[in-house]
């Protein structure tokens, strides 16, 4: 239950930062390219990569800290970072086919689900 609390707090912080980025770009960029999403995804991937590398290099065993920062904060900030980390781990373990399948199916299923949801709502 303690880990759920850490994920909850981290997710709230990540989501709040994601909102702040969206707010900033909405005020300063207009409605052209989706810069807020692009920046959040890039930053989220950078942060989760830094954390993953740090945890591995320093053999960090604190599961609560890992969950707070990765599942909570990065997950609240952008789930794209989790997808990217999982694919990186596939590549790191030389599971290239799984990385390709996971990336492709995630994108295709995601687009189809958005389309289905849109159609169902009309």
UniProtKB/TrEMBL annotation:
Keyword Ribonucleoprotein: no
Positions bound to Na(+): 75, 78
Membrane-spanning segments: 36-55, 67-85, 97-118
Main subcellular location: membrane
Known catalytic reactions: fluoride(in) = fluoride(out)
Membrane topology term: Multi-pass membrane protein
Activation/inhibition comment: Na(+) is not transported, but it plays an essential structural role and its presence is essential for fluoride channel function.
Family: Belongs to the fluoride channel Fluc/FEX (TC 1.A.43) family.
Keyword Transport in record: yes
Domain of life according to the entry: Bacteria
Keywords linked to the UniProt accession: Cell inner membrane, Cell membrane, Ion channel, Ion transport, Membrane, Metal-binding, Sodium, Transmembrane, Transmembrane helix, Transport
Protein name: Fluoride-specific ion channel FluC
Subcellular location: Cell membrane
Organism of provenance: Flavobacterium nakdongensis
Gene (UniProt): crcB
Pfam families: CRCB
Function, as annotated: Fluoride-specific ion channel. Important for reducing fluoride concentration in the cell, thus reducing its toxicity.
